[in-house]
Amino acid sequence: MIKTVGFAMCGSFCTMQKAVDEMRTLSEQYAILPVMSQNVYETDTRFGKAKDFIDEVEKISGRQVLHSIVSTEPIGPKGLVDVMVVMPCTGNTLSKIANGITDTSVTMAVKSSLRIGIPVVLGLATNDAMGASGTNIAKLFNTKNVYLVPLHQDDPIKKPFSLVSDFSLLPQTIEAALKGRQLQPFYR
């Protein structure tokens, strides 16, 4: 039976296309349930128009994008996914997840998954990972059923506190998470 990946996207707009490309790769092996934060669902940026991302994601997944708290709440209780991915996961969303704040479609998708033991994989993209968000990374690194896609510095000179997940490692991170393991090495 084909496993289903919940694929939630937050507003690290500069990494959005990389995330969509990873979703496309995953769709060759998994069914995809797409989720977008309100910002991603509604905001046009210099990196692309919201409608274009929505259309592309819905074409890849064959499903409508879930983008409200009400639409994502049933994910866990109804067992709609086997693993929940958040990619890109911003520092803001990371902080909310680490501190139990559920006020967006993405944080509800994560909470809904964790409450019944579904593994959650976070693909971080944050400019303050080695600053304010660092404590939240450490907190989640030791949380049951939360797994992080390995990280690297994306621009150590211009953005010395920034870390981004190696998006190409998402498939391996999912496979490890489904077995209850964190993919290593964590920093590359």
From TrEMBL:
Residue ranges occupied by any Flavoprotein domain in the UniProt entry: 3-163
Recorded coiled-coil stretches: none
Protein name as it appears in the record: Dipicolinate synthase subunit B
Species this protein is from: Neglectibacter timonensis
